[in-house]
Amino acid sequence: MSLGSCCISGVKHEGTPAGEFTTINGTRVYQALPKGDYDKTKALLFFTDIFGNSLPNGQLVADAFAAEGFATYAVDYLNGDDAPEDALSRNKDFDLMAWLSKHGKAETYPHILKTIEGLKQQGVKDFAATGYCFGGRYVVDCVLDGHLKVAIVSHPSLLKPDEDLPAIKAKSIPFLWNTCETDQMWPKECQEKADEVFKGDKNYQRNYYEGVSHGFAIRGDPKDEKSRKAKEGAFESSIKFLKENL
């Protein structure tokens, strides 16, 4: 299991998050709720990259999902031990692989399961999930464990194409993949393998964003036109996908 330098590349986004932190079944969650009436039987689980809920980036995207009518819950599955913000500026003291060794499935996934159970106790019946980079792995885990009705990943990390893709297909749920041109975590050969595995499958949709790299949908530079438009495109397609399938 490994990550690359692309997992700590990108920029901190500006903005004031509108949601709030709460505790659900013992797990800290950034909760972004729609204004006015919304369907309280549906929830969108939001799995950040390795920067967790410390950076505003994920919170702002979660807020945007809520503004479109989806109750969104950014689970602190990293248990407060996010990668430090200065890792974006290539802090030489940050050891990515040492950090990863402390954030395996045994340490992280239980927080997601506790959140799902807590939301079920609140009346949620249908779950979707969207995951970015490191968080993409947990979307797949939730799919394989039967927790989701809809799944979305953007430039996912730590997937095992030979194992995961056939297993995902067997679950037969709507799954959107936001992919890009430069991505060492989910490179062209993996993208094409997914196309092959899911060929003709109505549940499969893959978007491809040329001229951008891993992290574009959550850490991309908003001052760069290609990056900004790709991020907007991935978000808009995610909204459309959720409205059609959740």
Describe this structure in words.
The protein has one domain: Rossmann fold (3-Layer(aba) Sandwich). It is 37% helix and 21% strand. It contains eight helices and eight strands, in the order βββαβααβαβαβαβαα. The protein has helices at residues 56-67, 96-101, 105-121, 134-144, 161-171, 188-197, 216-219, 225-245; strands at residues 20-24, 27-32, 42-47, 72-75, 126-132, 150-154, 175-182, 204-213. The chain has an eight-stranded mixed β-sheet with strand order 1-2-4-3-5-6-7-8, with helices on both faces. Helix 4 links the parallel strand 5 (126-132) and strand 6. Helix 5 (161-171) runs parallel beside helix 6. The model has no long low-confidence stretch (mean pLDDT 92).
Relevant terms:
single chain, 246 residues, alpha/beta, Rossmann fold, globular, Dienelactn_hydro, Dienelactone hydrolase domain-containing protein, hydrolase activity, AB_hydrolase_fold
CATH-defined topology: Rossmann fold
Number of strands: 8
Content of β-strand: 15-25%
Supply Rg. 17 Å
CATH superfamily membership: Alpha/Beta hydrolase fold, catalytic domain
Helix content: 25-40%
Uncertain runs with pLDDT below 50, 5 residues or more? none
Task: Provide the residue-averaged pLDDT.
Answer: 92
Structural class, from secondary structure content?
alpha/beta
Reported for the largest beta sheet, the result is: 8 strands, mixed
User: Judging by the overall fold, what is the CATH architecture?
Assistant: 3-Layer(aba) Sandwich
The H-and-E topology, N to C, reads as EEEHEHHEHEHEHEHH
The total count of helices amounts to 8
